C-alpha cells in the first residue's frame, strides 16, 4: 500500500497552531454570511467544497510530512457550515523515507506513531484515535515486483496496453493513457478505479516535474545508488481506489462486512487485505475474454490461425465451424496487434454500438478456441509474484540484482 487520503470531519477534532500557514489564511464564518451563490453551490453535488485551505509548512529537514488541506462546506437544510481536514500521505515514505521498500500491515503502529510525531512539527494537533478512526477517501494498493533478466519490463507493458477494462463495472468510462515516459508507464482508468503499471526505479530517478510522484524524498535517489539498483527493473503494480464508495465496496467485501460500513484507516492494515485486493484486481483484468486473447503467448499469426482452425475442426467439421474459426482468428489477430479497446472503438464508429453484445459473443468464442494456449511469460510471472506477495525490502532487491548480474 502507498498513497492514502483520510478525512477528519469537524473542526472540533483537530487544532491548528498557526492558521497563517495556509495558502489563504483560514477563517470560519457563520451560515448567515453565505452568499446566494454559495448556498446554491452547497446543493450542487458536483461541487466538492465552498472553500479550501492548503497548508504550506515552512520546514525543510529531509523528512516526509503528510499533506494537509481543510475544506469548508455547508448544509442548507440544517443551516450550518462544517469543516473537514484531509490528510494525504505515502505510507512507505512516512515509515521508510522511500517507496521502493514496501510498507507492511504490521507497520500500522509505526505509521501512527510517525504521524503523531510529524503533524505537531507542522502545527497540526490530532489525537491518535481520531486518525485511526478517520474515514478513507483514497487508497492506492500496490506491489513492487523485481524482474529477472529474462522478463524485461517493456514487453510486459506492451502486452498490458492491449487489454480493455471499459465494461468491467457497467457504464463506466475507459480512458487510456499508455506508453508515456518512453514506454515505461501505463494507466487504465475505469470510473473511480485505476490500474497503473510502470518501472519503479526509473520513476524514482526522474525529475519531479516529469514524474508521477511530485513529492520525492532526498533519500530515494541515495537508496538507488547505495544499493546499486540503477539497472534493476522493478515492475510497479498499483490499483487505485479514488472514491469512498468504491473503497467501501472493495474493502468491506474482503472483510465480510456490510457495504455501508465506513472504512477507517485502521481497517486498511488488516492482514492479507492488500494481497487479496491486488490479486482480485489482477484477475478482473484476466477474466475478460478479449484480455485473455491480448495476453496470449503465441509465436506468430500463422501459428495462431492454425491453432484456432484445429480447435474449431475438433469441435465441428462444417462450413459454419470454418467461418467461426476465421472470424475468431480475425478478432484475435486485431487484438494482439492493436488492442481490445481499439477493436471496440473502431467497430463502434462503423457499426451500431447496439451490436456490442454480438461482439461479446464472438470474442467469447475466439477465446474458447484459443484457451489452451498459455498466457505470455510476463503475464504469468506477474500473476505468480502477486500470489507469493513476498515483502520487498532494499536488501531483498539488492539480492535480486546480484542474481540478475550473475545470469547476465
Question: Could you please describe the fold and organization of this structure?
Answer:
It contains 17 helices and 11 strands. It is an alpha+beta fold. The radius of gyration is 25 Å and the shape is globular. A hairpin with a 2-residue loop joins strand 9 (185-190) and strand 10 (193-199). Among the domains are: 1-133, no CATH class; 298-373, no CATH class. The strands form 2 sheets. The protein has a 9-stranded antiparallel sheet. It has a two-stranded antiparallel sheet with strand order 2-6.
The biggest sheet, with number of strands, parallel, antiparallel or mixed sense and barrel status, is: 9 strands, antiparallel
Strand proportion, as a percent range, falls in 15-25%
Shape: globular
Mean pLDDT: 90
Number of strands: 11
Radius of gyration: 25 Å
Order of helices and strands: EEHEEEHHEHEHEHEEHHEHHHHHHHHH
Instruction: State the helicity in percent bands.
Output: 40-55%
Provide a count of the helices. Answer: 17
Distance between the termini: 32 Å
Give, in spatial order, the strands making up the sheet with the most strands. Answer: 3-4-5-1-7-11-10-9-8
Give me the secondary-structure category.
Answer: alpha+beta
Weakly predicted, low-confidence segments = 168-182
